[in-house]
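Hi support team,

I'm filing this because I wasn't sure whether my run with 6-O-phosphono-beta-D-fructofuranose finished correctly. The job status page said complete, but I'd like someone to confirm that the output block is well-formed before I use it downstream. Pasting the exact inputs I used:
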Amino acid sequence: MKNQKRIAILTGGGDCPGINAVIRAVAKKAIYEKGMEVIGIEDGYHGLVNNQYRPLTYDDVSGILTSGGTILGTSKTANPYRYAVRKGRRLEFKDLSKTAIENLKKLGVSCLVCIGGDGTLGIAHRLFEDGIPIVGVPKTIDNDLRGTDITFGFDSAVWIATEGIDRIHTTAQSHHRIMIIEVMGHKAGWIALHAGVAGGGDIILIPEIPYDVNIIAKKVKERNKKGRRFSIVVVAEGVRPKGGDIVIQRIVKESTDPIRLGGVGFVLGEQIEKITELETRTVVMGHLQRGGSPTPFDRVLATQLGSKAVDMMENEEFGYMVGVSGNTLASVSLQVVAEGTKTVPLDHPLIKAARSVGTCFGD
Ligand code: F6P
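And here is everything the job wrote out:
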């Protein structure tokens, strides 16, 4: 029996492979199984503030399972509670949350599904506290969200980074060079750890373990002595040297988290080359890790998360997101996500396994 409920979907923060698969799962199940009407909010919270939206039909969400990005558009800066308005060269911040909430109320939706990372879901939590019925779906290549073992997008990013490391391996071997591959992950080392292990990195540097460049150089020299005349260093963008600081690429003032990382690979490259006197090159994987088609794992995960989000809407589990715990999906309060990020524990089994095969973590 159709109940004619109307729901809305919003995608916020950095894009990643699998968002469209979630949109598809939510919309198809809502339309096909529940007889609901679905609205797509455009460009993240910008759309909520400026009343930009469009209906999503079954046809609109067909054929998007494998496509990268988000058909709804996204924003890493729009925040209804601190909405940046440009006045000439100046930025002014306004609280437009009441406008956003009014717009949503006028749309008559019974639930807003927010697909996003810590920034987006943190705002979703505030909107929920201000009376908006919200269900969250955890998204980020960084895998740094609390309350879930894994986020969709992570597996795809690891796959792309690993492919990059594999390709760098052959050129490193041929030229007897040290190759540094900088990967994303913000202040967490999940991508570097997983891609580093999968790609056989000789040295893996993660933000959770501050490094000493002399220890890295020692490892490279030891390898050289043993006839391994190349080394692969996988470095997370958010690493810091012991007693030192992270490398900031730019500050995006209007963003919920203004710091954009990047460039530590070049700093390290120069230092390692100087100490070892071995030719060194740096490759920054950058936004390649967020582009293109999701892996089969992420397509499956995204479909499960989207389907569960609709169940949660039906059960009126508002203020919660779909979390992954072992092999099951669980409802997790958005409060948990808002409390901080999930970094790699120092006793993580993968760190232990990597150390046991001789991988150096720069410590
Ligand atoms: O959170 C996803 C992410 O790709 C991080 O890994 C990275 O630090 C950041 O976003 C890059 O942000 P931007 O797309 O604004 O350059």
